[in-house]
Design brief:
Elements (H helix, E strand, L loop, with lengths): L24 H10 L14 E2 L11 H7 L10 H14 L3 E5 L2 H12 L5 E4 L4 H9 L3 E4 L20 H11 L6 E5 L12 H13 L3 E5 L3 H11 L8 H10 L3 E5 L10 E5 L2 H14 L10 H14 L2 H20 L12 E5 H4 L9 H13 L1 E2 L1 E3 L1 H4 L14 E5 L7 H16 L7 E5 L10 E4 L1
Parallel strand pairs: 1-10, 3-4, 5-6, 6-7
Antiparallel strand pairs: 2-8, 7-8, 9-12, 11-12, 13-14
Bound molecules: ligand F0G.
Ligand F0G binds next to helix 4 and helix 5.
Length: about 450
Amino acid sequence: MAFTRKPWAEPYKIKVVEPLKMTTEEYREIKAKEAGFNTFLLRSEDVYIDLLTDSGTNAMSDYQWAGMMLGDESYAGSKNFYYLEDNVRKHYNYKHVVPTHQGRGAEHLISRALIRDGHYVPGNMYFTTTRAHQELAGGTFVDVIVDEAHDSQIELPFKGNVDIKKFQALIDRVGGHNIPYITVGATVNMAGGQPVSMANLIAVKELAHKHGIKVILDATRVTENAYYIQQREEGYANKSIPEILYEFCGHTDGATVSGKKDVYTNIGGFVAVNDDDLFDELRNMVVIYEGLHTYGGLAGRDMEAMSRGIEEMVRQENIEFRIKQVQYLGDMLVEAGVPIVRPVGGHAVFLDAKKIYDHIPQEQYPAQALAADLYIHSGVRAMERGIVSAGRDKDGNEYKPKLELVRLTIPRRVYTQSHLDVVAYSVIDLYQHRHEAKGLKLVYEPKFLRFFQARFERL
Ligand code: F0G
């Protein structure tokens, strides 16, 4: 056999397997209708390859599972907390850590602690739960990401960067005293998993601190960001992932983290800060909303799994495989001419539904329709990341994001390259029959984060 490239493979072998259910297209058509054409409302046992999210869907290692048996389930002062605290200090470079049940628990605490009515909170593109908590706390989110991030086809190494001019313009307009902090997401989920450069983060910090504004990192997928800095930014090729991560976080005042991504766990999160007074407030608030400050809604074993996951996430072979596996799927689709967000990002391949279903107007939810069609076609579950996810503004008008995407998110250490071959084949086949597709109409809409529970019918 002749190889066109040097083969590479998973840096792990499989110890336990979970069988998958195979279904027919007729069966899936019924299930899609029952689920209101919303992939969040499908039962997972009816899904063949589940690319809904990389959140909490990771396979833990034997090292993490072994740690689960060392859970110290004491109400107060669990040893697993202190181990987590050590690892957060060592790798994320913050002084204080407050565990939470997951990322949005951390977002809730930081938003409540820092945002007051009338405040503005800039960020490099919104994330659904992050913005929801900022708005619930009385703030107005302002997008300050570079323009290119809203265009799926422009290839840039750091397409998640903050546009410093936009940030400056907001400060000029509303005053630094009305901006408690800027959220910097790394990598930027809604932009397609695009990274932020070290140089950009430093520029953000300098401008923010000049005006008394804090920099809060959404460090949910920051290890992926560190890998891109190592590969793409001048001066970092010879630095290790732990060194880059430590330096990167060091330019910020604090972070919210969903441990369900980079950290290879199924649940967990934390908020970490340097400021002693802010920590005091967070630590006091967590007892109301999550649990005592040494468990924050988690079992001791979950904190142990997170702590061990942090040690694994920073290993070069792990993060490199992670990024390359996503790239592998993206490359197959690009080769077949399927429009996707370029360059391929860290955690997912994003299909450009506006371009694929260019005969369906945005008001008929083309990305939602494409995600449903992909499930019916082949049992692959994806997620809408377009007008449905964007929701409505305070006056009830639908946000109309430029990006109308379907996300094929790759869980860590779960699927093999053969699974991704099947996914690519299915997407390409669907793409070739794209003109037969129909739009959707919204028939039920919940008040908050509507994409999770909304229902649709085919037009
Ligand atoms: N920040 C980012 C960038 C995220 O992607 C998520 C979750 C959160 C915060 C919230 O964390 O789910 O632990 O409460 N993203 C998931 C996703 C849901 O599918 O992208 P959480």
